[in-house]
Amino acid sequence: MEAKTPNTRDPRRLLRRMRELMATRENAQDRLDHLTTLIADEAGWDVCSIYLARRSSALELCATHGLKAEAVHHTRLQPGEGLVGLVARRARPFATFDARSHPAFSYRPETGEEPFNTFVGVPILRGGRLVGVLTSQSTVERQVGEDEIDSLQTVAMVLAEIVASGDIVDSEEMAGLDVRQSKPERLQGGAFSGGLVKGVAVLFEPHVGSDRLISEDAAGEEARLDTAIDGLRSSIDDMLESGRVPFGGPTRDVLQAYRMFAHDRGWLERLREAVRLGLTAEAAIERVRNENRARLMKAADLTFRERLHDLEDLANRLLRHLDGHTAPQITLPDNAILIARNIGPAELLDFDRTKLLGVALEEGSASSHAAIVAKALGIPLIGRLEGALDRAENGDPVILDAEFGVLHIRPTVDVIEAYDERLQVLSIRRLSYAEMRGPSVTLDGQRVGLHINAGLLVELSHLEQAGADGVGLFRTEFQFMVADTLPRLDAQAAVYGSVLDAANGKPVVFRTLDLGGDKVAPFAPSMVEPNPALGWRAIRMGLDRPGLLRYQLRALIQAAAGRPLHVMFPMISAPWEMRAARAMLERELQHAEHNRHPLPSEVKIGLMLETPGIAWAIEHVIDAVDFVSVGANDLMQYFFAADRQNARVSDRYDVLSPAALGLFRQIRNACAKHDVPVSVCGEIASKPLEAAVLIGLGYRSLSMAAANLGPIKKLISGLDADKLGIWLASRMDSPADSLRPLLLNAGAEAGLPGEAVENGRRI
Question: Which residue has better confidence, 544 or 356?
Fold first, then answer.
């Protein structure tokens, strides 16, 4: 056999010939065989072979030019076996001019590869996952150049997408190959918006399609890439230099990392080189992303995994700049379950809510605003599902269990049957909740008011369905955060008026703007802060920039016009802030009266108690308020000094600890002493065991997501509030870190119904 000398022909010609081959009508095996011959001929190798991964994880020789034909589908290498296995294990290219002397070499006599000395192999990667290995061999002993390896990597990237699309491996002779994800996956995360749904996976950042891989004009593609890179850099620079980070987007630190990577010469040169080899700009980004993902996902150091997230986001942003979109464009099937790294509330609102059944995130938190919006829309949401994007494919059947925080991808028959039974039970339970629309009364005759939290007009439909007593918290900032400019007075008033109309006479508590921190509107003043949760936000911003707050108060007064108006000010930390806010509202009432505008029939002014500072000073401000609402999420965040957005610490401390419950009891007693109504809103009010404890402490008004009203109503009907109150009083001085275990063990002895105990044991 006359040895060929590998050459460096134009790789774009090879890609064009690959595309032509795909257009021919051949069976799967013939296509693979012709593909190896084509690669060997164009690149000048004696041997070209394609090994594809089987579901057993073995690598099977599926096609070859130059090795013995009888070895095809008979030679299989186990993970890590031979030079092919070495490439697969490392997920990186490997080349040697003396293959048989390498320690990893595995002799397979059936292949007839003895004469071939030079070996080069590159992984066939898709989504960072190994699809197979592409190898080339030559009898000539020589060093393999980087340009040759680059050319093979480009071919491997195209091959991965073609194989996964079914353009090659679509027949029975290729059955059992792991070209797409196939095995069942079970991912455990956190349940952030409850529910249980079955549907199909829709990836928020899908792969580049196989029809968009090979370019016709390399120079034109490079120009497109450079334009997109310039746009990406400018957008990052604008966000950083303006001191404003869009709501739902990354933090400033992450943007700083983006800026660094966006100017990284190595990353950019790899992108440009892939384009020069004949890929489209989109395919070049996908290729480089695959290589980074495969390499960094194997790293034990978490710092490298963090860097992968930054590079992933950067690649996704760059793809959107190429498309000319600032947000992903996705058409949903009728039963879509969205799988994403993270998502902002404005993005979530963009999706067709009649088709979106659930959301699964690799990141996220229970108190994130995406979770709040998901609850508002009744969309189950799970977060902290590491690796979900890599393990799922578009169209995969999935089960999203947002009661226990579990995502099943490609579930087995027995798992599907078990969940079908649960869905039937939940359906029956929902019907029983629907029948409980009357007042909520405990077993011992205590009336408890139940209200919903809302921030969107669509949520008001739940008032009658769930039998709620009113809206205990209407978040007004969503209208501002999704607008490019400050909403006009009439536009604000129209929204608030529509909310009051939808409430149909039931009370609505409007919380004034809670901007700042992680909630930033494009037009609102902002600044870079090292700790935004403790910084210039909510009422602090409103008092320092009174024009924005007065404008909103004026709109609320205009919207009420003859109806009761309940206004609540957030993030009060000192008595003088509450008095200043009240004075501002009173001035706006005087302004309306002076200009003979219709006034509300009555005005109630409330304090949202979210800081320990005002909790300990409540006696000094109680005379300035008509009601108090305890914002339990932030109050507990500041009480425990634990960032509720940080998964490592957000669940570290239990709200049922004696110290935390002592604070809730003190607040309730102070309000009762002055005959000021007090309620609790937030996560604590929506969980049966925690809600029971609040009622036991004397709270008679709770506000929560509408989806939680049914379970809490059921809880209340079986709760002995006095008995639980006596039990709690006897144990408030306990040295235990939490009263939860004691409560669960006590059960009915403490006046608890079964629902509270069952729910408490899940956590």
Answer: 356
Residue where the block lists tokens 């790293």 = 299
DSSP 725: H
Q: Amino acid identity of 185? A: E
Q: In this predicted structure, what is the pLDDT of residue 519?
A: 52
Contacting residues for 149 by C-beta, under 8 A, at least 6 apart: 93, 95, 120, 122
Place of tokens 């969940």: 419
Active site positions, annotated: 369, 681
Identify which has the larger pLDDT, 70 or 480. 70
Residue found by looking up tokens 């139940």 in the block = 450
Phi first, then psi, for residue 619 (nearest 5°) are -65, -25
Tokens matching residue 177: 């190959």
Helix locations, 435-545, DSSP H: 462-466, 478-481, 489-503, 539-544
Read off the DSSP letter of residue 449. E
CA 460, CA 499: separation in Å to the nearest integer?
A: 7
Alpha-carbon gap, residue 129 to 134, rounded angstroms = 14
The values of phi and psi at residue 60, to 5°, are -105, 130
- Sorted by sequence, the CB contacts under 8 Å of residue 220 that are 6+ apart come out as none
| β-bridge mates for residue 77, sequence order | 59
Q: Is 458 exposed, middle or buried (0-12, 13-18, 19+ CB in 10 A)?
A: middle
**628-663 pLDDT, tens per residue?**
999 998 899 999 988 766 767 767 889 999 999 999
In 648-738 the beta strands, taken as DSSP E runs, fall at: 678-681, 701-704
Q: Look at residue 111 in the predicted model and tell me its pLDDT.
A: 93
Left, alpha or beta for 261 (phi > 0: left; psi -120 to 50: alpha)? alpha
Alpha-carbon distance 187 to 410, whole Å? Answer: 12
Q: Which two tokens stand for residue 59?
A: 């690598």
Pick 562 or 11 by higher pLDDT: 562
Spacing of C-alpha 264 from chain mean position? 27
Q: Is 562 buried (19+), middle (13-18) or exposed (0-12) by CB count in 10 A? A: exposed
Compute the distance between CA of residue 76 and CA of residue 574 in angstroms, rounded to an integer.
72
- The DSSP-derived string for 535-552 is SS-THHHHHHSHHHHHHH
CA distance 163 to 306: 30
What's the rounded Cα separation, in Å, for the pair 56 and 14?
32
When mean pLDDT is compared over 128-132, 402-406, 464-468, 520-524, the highest value belongs to 402-406
What gap in Å lies between CA 650 and CA 641, rounded to an integer? 10
Q: Which of 719, 709, 711, 705 is nearest to 751 (CA)?
A: 719
DSSP 8-state code for residue 644: T
Collapsed DSSP state (helix, strand, coil) of residue 94: strand
Nearest partner of 39 among 72, 71, 6, judged by Cα = 6
Max distance between CA atoms of the chain, in angstroms, equals 102
CA distance 460 to 322: 40
- Alpha-carbon gap, residue 87 to 93, rounded angstroms: 6
Q: Rounded CA gap, 515 and 524, in Å? A: 8
The Cα–Cα gap between 70 and 358 comes to 49
Q: What angle do CA 701, 702, 705 make, to 5 degrees?
A: 150
Closest CA to 117 of 132, 135, 100: 100
CA angle 644, 629, 438 (to 5 degrees): 105
How many C-beta neighbours within 10 Å does residue 283 have? 27
d(CA 123, CA 92): 6
Cβ atoms of 157 and 127 within 8 Å: the answer is: no
Beta bridge pairs of residue 125: 130
Burial of residue 673 (CB within 10 Å: 0-12, 13-18, 19+) is exposed
Place of tokens 């978040």: 475
- d(CA 738, CA 735) in angstroms, rounded, equals 8
8 versus 289: the higher-pLDDT residue is 289
From residue 432, alpha-carbon distances to 213, 418, 466 in Å are 54, 22, 11
